[in-house]
Amino acid sequence: MKTLSMSHPFHRKRSYVVQLGEAGNHSCLTFDLHVIERRMEMVRVVSHNTHKRMVTCLQGHIGTDAEKRHKKLPLTALSQAMVDGGSQLGEESLIGKMMEVCGEAENRLASELLQHEVQIEKDMLDPLNQLAEVDIPNILKQRKQLARLVLDYDSARARWLQATKSIISGTNTQALTAKADLLKEEVDEAMNKMELCKDQLAADMYNFFSKEGDYACYYVMLLEAQADYHRKSLTVLESVLPTIQAQQDSWTEKPAFGTGLEEHLKRSSREIALPLEACIMMLLETGMKEEGLFRIAAGTSKLKKLKAALDCSTSQLEEFYSDPHAVAGALKSYLRELPEPLMSFQLYDEWIQASSVLEPDKRLQALWVVCDQLPKNNKANLRYLVKFLSKLAQDSEVNKMTPSNIAIVLGPNLLWAKTEGTLAEMAAATSVHVVTIIEPIIQHADWFFPEDVEFNVSGMFAMPTPPSNHINHSMEYDCSTIERKRPGSMVGPENDTLRKDRQQIYLTSLFLRLVWTTSHSLVLSLSFSLALSLPTLGLGDSVLWVSFSTWLCRLPLCPLPLL
């Protein structure tokens, strides 16, 4: 294998680099300067990396003028898209209004972002770039220059020492002395250059070290600039949000289902909830003779479509007139989805207490007192509904919906406890108390609410033409005092029929609820609950109760197979 001679250019260059490194290691720098040198190199690296990452965080293009930079911001593009979209949708669309306001806000945010990035570029990026790419590299260049000067000095000194030795052993003393003097001048010149460079390097290094606190301030300035930007952006948003919220609140086309009664009435400027009025007007037209109204379930798709139509406040409801069960289902769904029942959480205990009064006339009096305590809007809407239910019950021979039937299927949607209890408590409350509250109110609707009701409150719907043989069941009552004519005196010859019908419906309801029970103790609990409630309902036939309770006690632990 051929080897390179020591005189080859590669070896000469390598020898120079080795000597330069050795000169750098023996450059007579003090220990603290060596420490500063290492720190300076690390600062250069981290400053370079920080600058690089900060540039990637900016959304604008560095170096371009402000106008072009603003147009290139993503927020500006978003703002323009929102404004254009709002213009296309128009003022009649809430989304269009919101897009225009938000578009203007986004444009203001883009302006704040532009100012922020310009400030960051000026106060942070430029100084960091200057430090990492100019100042520290210049000091490091001086460090390399000092290493070269040290090498030159060492070389000149070595030649001078060799010439001095030659004078002693040589014959031509005068010539050798002259040569040694010239070399001595070279050594002195090289030393002067080396010392000047060393002094300049030391000064620059100490200056860098003394300014490290100033360099650290760049990062403080970054956080201050970001805080100022976010404060200004927050100010922009806070100035816009009230306007947006006001437009949102003023928009009347909001879903009625699931919205509180007070909020819905206030937003729509109505006295009676739209779903309540719309459904009742449709039922008055086509549903009064429908058998099993409120009891027979409607088709899911039809019910969903009707609810969506009512949420949109549309008056185009002609297609639903032919399906009264869907209309009744929508009415039940509206009442059930109210955040607070129509008969109020606050009065729940009072309702239950009033229904527990044993004497019928006093029980009615107690129910009236609680009813009179309802909030104004709740009472108005309950009166509207009860008047309709009373009208519906007048056709019970055809539609099979007696006050008792109506109370069983609709009562749980009008009153429920705020906190759900056990299965036994819920069953007892639903089957006994709620029915004993709703049924007499429907039976004696004109006693509880003597005033006439105009069902077409808003004028949006056409009133049905009453049949020629229509009988007015309303009666005149004194509304100024609590001492009214007892509704018990109004019961006619049909009292026995109503009582038997009430017994049949009520016992059937309790039986259907008992099939869900899974313990004998729960059956007994419900039996005793019924025993206490029968006298209150006027169902106190002892023979009937004994036979029924005996049957209850003989039920198996899982009565579901009995169906």
Automatic annotation (TrEMBL):
What sequence ranges are listed for the domain BAR?
A: 18-253
Spell out the SMART domains in the cross-references: BAR, RhoGAP
Q: Where is the Rho-GAP domain?
A: 259-449
**Primary localization class, coarse:** other
The parts of the chain that form a coiled coil are: 173-200
Work out whether the entry's keyword set contains Ribonucleoprotein: no
Q: Which GO terms describe its molecular function?
A: GTPase activator activity; SH3 domain binding
From the Swiss-Prot or TrEMBL record, state where the protein is found: Cell junction, Tight junction; Cytoplasm; Membrane
Q: Which GO terms describe its biological process?
A: regulation of actin cytoskeleton organization; regulation of Rac protein signal transduction; signal transduction
Q: Which GO terms describe its cellular component?
A: bicellular tight junction; cytosol; membrane
Quaternary context: Component of a complex whose core is composed of ARHGAP17, AMOT, PALS1, PATJ and PARD3/PAR3. Interacts with NHERF1, FNBP1, TRIP10, CAPZA (CAPZA1, CAPZA2 or CAPZA3), CAPZB, CD2AP and SH3KBP1/CIN85.
Q: Which PANTHER family does the record cross-reference, listed alphabetically?
A: 3BP-1 RELATED RHOGAP (PTHR14130), RHO GTPASE-ACTIVATING PROTEIN 17 (PTHR14130:SF3)
Known role: Rho GTPase-activating protein involved in the maintenance of tight junction by regulating the activity of CDC42, thereby playing a central role in apical polarity of epithelial cells. Specifically acts as a GTPase activator for the CDC42 GTPase by converting it to an inactive GDP-bound state. The complex formed with AMOT acts by regulating the uptake of polarity proteins at tight junctions, possibly by deciding whether tight junction transmembrane proteins are recycled back to the plasma membrane or sent elsewhere.
Protein name, per record: Rho GTPase-activating protein 17
Please name the gene that encodes this protein.
LOC109898936
